[in-house]
Amino acid sequence: MTALVRHRLFWPAAVLLLLLAANVAFTPGFLSIEMKDGHLYGSLIDIFRFGAPLILVAIGMTLVIATGGIDLSVGSVVAISGALACLHISGLPDQNDVGGVLTAVGLALGLALVLGAWNGFLVAGIGIQPIIATLIIMVAGRGLAQLITDGQIVTVNSASYKLIGGGYWLTLPFSILIVLAVLALTAFLTRRLALGMLVESIGGNATASRLAGIRSRGLTVAVYAFCALCAGIAGLMISSNVSSADGNNAGLWIELDAILAVVIGGTSLMGGRFSLGGTVLGALVIQTLTTTIYSIGIPPETTLLFKALVVTVVCLVQSPAFREKVFQRRGRRRPAAPQATDDEKVEVPA
Amino acid sequence: MSSGILTSARLRLPGRLRSAYIPVLATAGLLAAMFVAGGVRYTGFASGQVVLNVFIDNAFLLVVAVGMTFVILTGGIDLSVGAVVALSTMVSASLMTDGGWPPLLVVPLVLLIGSALGLAMGCIIHYFDIQPFIVTLAGMFLARGLCYVIGTDSISITDPAYTAVAQARIALPGEMAVSVSVLIAVAVAGAAAYVLHYTRLGRNVYAIGGSEQSALLMGLPVARTKIAVYTISGFCSALGGVLFSLYTLSGYGLNALGMELDAIAAVVIGGTLLTGGSGYLAGTVLGVLVLGLIQTIISFEGTLSSWWTKIFIGLLLFAFILLQRLISARRA
């Protein structure tokens, strides 16, 4: 039992199960999944479907955080990629033309890669702190997205583009399949090959890993580019789901949700270690929370309050300092009661 | 992190102190250049009132950025400031308009709420050793959430005393005038500069930003100081919210969306290192003025759309970060 509780994914999984249980209690048919017109429908599918962009962004964010960095610019990249794709499609003579849509997707993802590589260059090449380096595109990128769309909301009417975020394939929403593909690829690259370990070594100590012969600079640039690519795909999904691009509001605050998902999943912001499974769990916790609030009938205005509560609780129970102070004090009180205060004084926060 | 600590330690070597001034001087130079360029290009730009208007339009941002400077100097970050500003406007507006409370009661209450929120976040950050980024993010969700609990619509403030203060203009020589908010903001900035540079609390803030472990081993009150900076930031955000409600005479849950980014940008453009331990409050004031002047120039230009503001701020951030990097690289 203790081994189970100590597992690093125990708490996020417990919170997710708790949320699902709350849903089942309020909505009896919550877990049922039905087949309609050859498509799978159900609340669980919806959680995955609406959470797909967040999961994607969070996967990219996990790798960036594993290198000891952080990427604040993903929300802007989401907006830019959606804006560029929609702008290109809206200019096509036939908006359903698959070749044209693929060009738009390629353009948007290409630009996302460039922006990510720029972030990586600032971090690894010039040595700027990640939080500031990515702050540049976070601020300027919103302006860039509005510049691309000329401040308007660009709407498109393209069935082939709609597939990315709102379509179905093999009975499943296409967005879920994209997420599964990206997740499988990332898991293969980082856990079957040495790449994941190299990324973690950069987060552990960038200089030491470079001295050990790891090309930490190139790898860091690649990780930021990958994160931006994930954000770019998420941007395509979001804009295709609503068939329009809003430079101002698309992907607003998704960087915060993504970082949150990563932290809830047990990846430390200090870097050096990461858990893809935890991140997916974290993103699902966030999305389930939103769904729960709607389905239980709590006024949507209070969504943020519940989010604040869950974030605080999850982060507190994962914090070693909190666990030491609250959970173990009971056990330790009798043998070492007078030393409790001494412990606090000597403790040096890293 | 380690390179940042080294950099800030070097910044305070006595013989090389002057290089620490370079980012602040660069910001001041940029501000002067922008003002001159604006004066040459547009008629009616080069007047004292234009400068004062920048102050009037950005008084709340100045106060918020002052609080953010304290937090960033310790190496932390406060993402909750924009939300606390919104919460303050919302609480003020709902209590005064719907509750009929007198402003003299509402304003202290609002300041208390902001400080209490900052205090709580500071305690969680310090005692439970959770990243400031995450804790203040939760604080941001909490404060925005509370706004929506109070109400989802904009509430206008009609209290006669409050509107009188909001509309009051204090005449200065040369047919110029400022609002009450500007006086408050300047007083806050002055008090903060005094605290940072001439008191024990200020030295502790710099010491923790330089190296928290060293500060702890030196016997400095790390816990008290860290909690104090978040409380100060909460207080400044609440005061910023009061000034914001004076400026717009309304409370709205979507007010000050993204103001945390403006505040962080102002602090960075003002030459403060985000790793902590190095920077000046004067730089933050200059940073706020640079941001304000960009908006003024864009409104004078007339044909440029509002999103160019963001692009310019991004470019400026890049230029200043590069400058700081070059300075610290040369020293290394």
TrEMBL record, chain A:
Q: Which Gene Ontology cellular component annotation is one that this UniProt entry carries?
A: plasma membrane
How does it sit in the bilayer?
Multi-pass membrane protein
The keyword Transport is annotated on this UniProt entry:
no
Q: What is its main location?
A: membrane
Q: Which GO terms describe its molecular function?
A: transmembrane transporter activity
Q: Pfam families this protein is in? A: BPD_transp_2
Q: Where are the transmembrane segments?
A: 40-65, 72-92, 98-118, 130-148, 168-189, 219-238, 250-269, 276-298, 304-322
Keyword match Nucleotide-binding: no
Per UniProt, the keywords (alphabetical) are: Cell membrane, Membrane, Transmembrane, Transmembrane helix
Compartments in which it is found: Cell membrane
Entry-linked PANTHER family: ABC TRANSPORTER PERMEASE PROTEIN YPHD-RELATED-RELATED, GALACTOFURANOSE TRANSPORTER PERMEASE PROTEIN YTFT
- Protein name in the entry: Sugar ABC transporter permease
From TrEMBL, chain B:
Subcellular location, record wording = Cell membrane
Instruction: Give the residue spans that cross the bilayer.
Output: 20-38, 50-73, 104-127, 133-151, 172-196, 227-249, 261-294, 306-327
What's the protein name? Sugar ABC transporter permease
Keywords attached to this Swiss-Prot or TrEMBL record, sorted alphabetically, are: Cell membrane, Membrane, Transmembrane, Transmembrane helix
Species source reads Planomonospora parontospora
- Highest taxon of the lineage: Bacteria
Q: Does this UniProt record's set of keywords contain Transmembrane?
A: yes
InterPro entries recorded: ABC_transp_permease
